[in-house]
Amino acid sequence: MRKKIVAGNWKMNTLVKEGLALASNINDELKNQTLRNEVEVIIAPPFTHLTSVSEVVDNNKISISSQNCATECCGAYTGEISAEMLKNIGCRAVILGHSERRAYYGETSETLIKKTEQVLKNKMTPIFCCGEMLEEREANNHFKIVETQISEALFHLSEEDFANIVIAYEPVWAIGTGVTASKEQAQEMHAHIRTVIKAKYGNTIADNLTILYGGSVKPNNAKEIFSQPDVDGGLIGGASMKAESFIEIIKAI
Ligand code: 13P
């Protein structure tokens, strides 16, 4: 059975003190829950919080992810943070290619090829984000766009490496807007992604691939989105910034 994941992307929010409070609240709330299914809970705080947050949570229950990493391994790259540095402080995953990074920081498939390589080399999980803009959906290009984002950045990988990827489908029009994709829209895109992966890597890898949905997931819509057969969890922004709503979403799996 493929792994279920609920991941919280904190983006550029909270100072360390608030982040620590949020992380320990999530940790405490989680202790009191008996979750119905095996689900991996991931939180992705800003870089500055990673070390201290990983010290206040039970690392058997909550995995720490960063939101980005450098394209290179080390050296004269002022201001960058390498995958090896993240691994060294206990990160298990790295979010890559979030639409905000593509839109505001010019991340391209070429950048993402390098970042993915760094993350895999350091034995962490790339959470690879993809998703179309509203105009692209309206022009009925959404399947093609998502397929291209995935194939350009990931299809050079060996089967062994690809088996470590997690994909997060995040339609740009649903991020932070309160407009979530309908369960049908999420399911048809996730099924499409799985079909594309199947054609390239075969049934076993495609069937085992965890595909998360992200974009305005809230406690009141998580259950119906997660109930779709090809939706294996969520990448949560706003609603992961409160322990109670994040836990409600985790319970919806
Ligand atoms: P929201 O849940 O706030 O829409 O953000 C989704 C997201 O971008 C997660 O990476």
Descriptive account of the structure:
The protein is α/β, with parallel strands linked by helices and 253 residues long. Helix 11 links the parallel strand 7 (210-214) and strand 8. It has 12 helices and 8 strands. The protein has an 8-stranded parallel barrel with strand order 1-2-3-4-5-6-7-8, surrounded by 5 helices. The mean pLDDT is 97. It binds 1,3-dihydroxyacetonephosphate. 1,3-dihydroxyacetonephosphate is lined by residues 9, 98, 170, 175-176, 214-217, 235-239. Residues 9, 98, 170, 175-176, 214-217, 235-239 line the site of 1,3-dihydroxyacetonephosphate.
Structure at a glance:
It is built from twelve helices and eight strands.
The number of E-state strands comes to 8
Compute the CA-based radius of gyration. 17 Å
Outline the biggest β-sheet: 8 strands, parallel, barrel
Write out the distinct hetero groups bound to the structure.
1,3-dihydroxyacetonephosphate
The CATH homologous superfamily corresponds to Aldolase class I
Query: What is the strand content?
Result: 15-25%
Main-sheet strand order equals 1-2-3-4-5-6-7-8
Averaged pLDDT? 97
Principal-axis shape: globular
Strand-pairing-aware structural class: alpha/beta
CATH hierarchy: architecture = Alpha-Beta Barrel
Calculate the terminal CA-CA distance, rounded to whole Å. 14 Å
The topology string of helices and strands comes to: EHEHEHEHHEHHHEHHEHEH
Q: What is the percent of helical residues? A: 40-55%
Number of helices: 12
Uncertain residue segments: none
Provide the number of structural domains.
Answer: 1
